[in-house]
Every structure is written in structure tokens, then in C-alpha cells.
Amino acid sequence: MATLIPAFNSCSQRMTAGERRFAERLQQKLEDDYLLWYDIPIGKKRLRPDFIILQPDRGLFILEVKDWKLDTIQQADRTSITLLTDNGIQSVDHPLEQARKYAFAVKNALERDPLLQQPSGKHQGSLICPYAYGVVFTSITRRQFEGAGLDRVFPAQLVICQDEFYESVDVLEFQQRLWDMSHYNFDHRLTPQQIDRIRWHLFPEIRLTQEQVMDLKQEQLARSLGSGHRIVHGVAGSGKTLVLVYRCQFLAEQMTKPILVLCYNISLAARLRQMMREKGLGNRVKVRHFHGWCADLLRQYGIPLPDPNQYAGSAFFQQQVQQVMEAVEAGKIPTGQYGAVLIDEGHDFDPEWLKLVVQMVDPETNSLLLLYDDAQNLKGSTQRRKVSFAPLGIQARGRTTVLRINYRNTYEVLTAAYEFAKDFLTPTAGLDNDDEPMLILPESAGRHGAKPELIHLSSFKQEMTYLIDRLQTLHAGGVAWKQMAIIYRHRWTAEALEKAFGRSQMPLEWVTKDRRSRDYKPQENSIKLITMHSSKGLEYRVVCIPALGYVPHQDKDLTDETRLLYVAMTRAIEQLIITCHQKSVFVRKLEAALDRVA
What we know:
Distance between the termini: 33 Å
Oligomer: single chain
Structural class: alpha/beta
Number of strands: 23
Strand content: 15-25%
């Protein structure tokens, strides 16, 4: 079955009756390696063909679909069509000419890329795959088409008629009609990398880097969210944040009111702000960590912040939230301020926070996106999984999506992390109830790399020396400083590491040294030193975790400590290096987990 983007149930309502029938046939009668896009703008000019079809052997097809009936076509030539409509006689562009222009615009854009050019032979420099265009008449049969002489202005092989995509039509016959639109064929099958490169050019909004694009499943989800409240339950590394960024791009084109993105971590908020700036959304999307946003509201509406002499530590922030909720209840802070609200790492939010945030969504747009991973819920066993979304105002039933595949980590890193934490990652009953949080088991995307390392040394000083030498070697081998992170559990380890790395003159940024991590600059070329809690939502090519022998905290919840180390381990994209100089229950558990990594 072909993959349709957006998913059929999310775009069928805006399709014409004929487009719906044709989309169903495309999905039914084309194999799994066909990709279909419906009504999605392409390139910088944002051209909007009805359907784009891409297949590794057959190449690209651009199709325009028309529900015209024969008796509505009054006159036709090779440039325009005159139609009888409910509003009288109208002249419209020739649909085949439209499709041709779209196809040539795509071809010209793609073949400028050396990676998509024929490498040799008489067609050297030309587009590496075939391309074709055509028209689909959903209410005109082939006999009617020929009887009316439409084949004089529509070459017969470039047209698919109503009776040629009936449900009863043979699969190969249907496919042959599509293939006949192409004037040529190449003895070349597009590689997955070339297909991604084509997507990179066609759809700028799904670009991640100069080389990478969103995975197909991520793109399909991002384009299929629809309106209203939406919840995405996704495992670590499944691309939840990518979906959020795409959603912001989409909503920024639709809305006049500001868009708000919230998360818990200051460091993640800094990373999200950077991503928004890279997409040109810095002035249209506000990104804040939750408590910073609460402080903003109190200042904006002239409400004094809590007295730090009266409220210390966490009590200060609890009181800050309480004052915001009371001000909203009293009407001092207005609700419905934002055209859309998007929450990353929603498992970090207390239920009353979510209830507060939902009130800030404009009821006319009613646009809310909540990203959630209950495996990273560190609220403590007594509070965990007691959330029901409906009482909080979140309309979740029938509006949830699950992302199971971890794309961030190699198979080896993900397996080690899961084997370590699996006793505390049992799937929840929420899988059968989309009004509750779900704990989803991760599935690997199958990318392989180095096996995670647990390095035993004689002292913490030796651990520091080892990490300095190892990171210097990795940097000499081509890994940028900013692609490395040291994730720690105890502040004393960070203090010692800061001094040791300073003496070695290696660039180290202690992101969470104090609460000024709002100044965190993800793109600054330095090794990031960050707490396990603050590492949530972030990722690095190389992750080091020192002093494992001092984990878990004796006075902390064992489930939370296990999940916390799971979070830290799954920040590693390629390489995970863990050091210790004494035994602990976690060292023994990790040794056993690594033994189970193939």
C-alpha cells in the first residue's frame, strides 16, 4: 500500500469527491515503495500540484485532478478550457499545461543538484530519474473522452479517465496507465539517500540540516495533525520536537495571534528558540520555559512576584505558579491570548500547569499540541500516571498519535539504555485509553554504531583525566566540541570537571552552573556540561556520564533515578561513554545490560 502524505483521514475532508476516490485507488493499487503527496506546496515558489508521486524505479509524476463532467466543458484548446459553472461561463488554465509547468519547475530545481544528476553517458548532467505529468478526469470515461474529441487537446497517454481507476480495475492495468505518462525510463533505481534529497528540495519546511530531512513517518505525522487538540506520545529520540517545529511553521502561516511554545527546561527552551530562529520564526513564535513564562505574565500584568525572602527554592516557583492561576481565575490575566500553544516534554508538567496552559489557547483556533513520553516522567511513583487529560480541558480522545521508533540512538545505545531501565518501563494500560498518558516501548530504527562503554578507573581524578584525553582524541578525529556533552548527576562532579577542563584549556560550557542557563548557546563550539534533568530534549553525537558509582541517590526514588539515567543515556546519537571508580547497584545493572548488547 502506498504512503499518502498527509494521511488520508486528515486530508480527505478538503479533497473533492473525485480526488478522494483517486487517492484511495492510489493507495490501494500502488506498492509500498510509492510515495504520494496531496496538495502540498513545493519549492520556494510554493507551487501546489494536486498529487506528486515518487517511486524509486519510475521516478516523479505530477498530476492535476479535475471533477469536470463532459457537459460542463464548453470549449478547449491547448492553453485554456472554457467551463459552464454555477457562476456562468468561466475560462481556466489548461490543467495539463499546469501539470507540465509544475513538472518542469521540479525537474529544473532538482537537476541543479550534482547529487541528483546523471553521472555519465549522453544524459550526463540531466535529472537522475524520469519525470512525467498528466491529468485525471474523475467524472469522464475514456469513451466520453474520445467521443468528445478531447484527445485533440489532451494527449491520450497523459490522461487517466474515470473508468480507469474503478475499484475493479486490475492493479497492473492501473499502474500501466500511470507509467505510460512517462516518455522514457532509466536503468537506475533511486537510493533512499536520493529520495531524501528530492524531498529536501521539494519541501523546504521538512529540512533539518543542509543534508537531512524529516523521516517519512515524522513528515506524515507532522502534515496530518489537523486542527484542535492533539497529543503525540513518543519515545525518546522519535522526533517529537521536529514535529513541534514543523507545526509552528505551519501555524505561523495561518494565524495572526502569537504562538506560544512551552517546556520545562531552560536549556531546552534555548535550543527550541535557536531552532525557531533557523526557520525564520523568531519573531512569530514565543518560546519559554514554564516558570519563566509565569514570571513574564506576572510582570506584564503588574502583579508582584513572590517575595524571595519569604519563599525560598522550589517554594518560590510554586508560589509564582499559584499567583498566576489566581490572577487568571480573577480575570487579572486574560485567557485565550495565543492562537496556538505547543508543549514539549509535557510529562514534566504538573496537571494544574497543563490546566492553566490550556486556558491560554484562543477558543476560536483551539489549537493545542502536547508532546509526551511517560518513560521520562520523573514525578515520583506516587504522582506518576495519575493524569487524566479530560478534566484538564485537553480534548484527547481520538486525537492521539504514537511514535514508537527511536531515530536518534544507534541500536547499541538504545538497547543498552532499555536493558538497563526495562524493569521500570512496563507499558501502561493507557495504551487502551487515549485520555491518559501512555508508556511506549521504544523500537530501534536499525542504525548501528559503537557499543556503549563502561570504563572502570581507580579514582574520580582518573575519570576526569580519561575524559579529557578521550574527548581530545575524538575532537582530533573530527567531532566538533559542540557535539559532545558531559551529563552529570552530582554537582561536585561538575565543579571538579570545570576546573580540570579549564586547566587543560578545553572549551567547556557549564550549562546548568546556576539558573542562568537561559543564556545557553547550543551553537557555541564548546563541550556542554549539563545535569541529567536538564539534558531532556537535547542530543549530542558523543555523551559522557561520569561517576556512575555514586548513582543512584540513596534518598531518591529508585524508579526516578533509573529513568533519569535512561534519559541521560538516550541523549547520545552515536557514542556513549560512562566512567566509574567504585561499584554501585547501577554499575552492576549497567554491566549486565551491556552484556546483553549484541
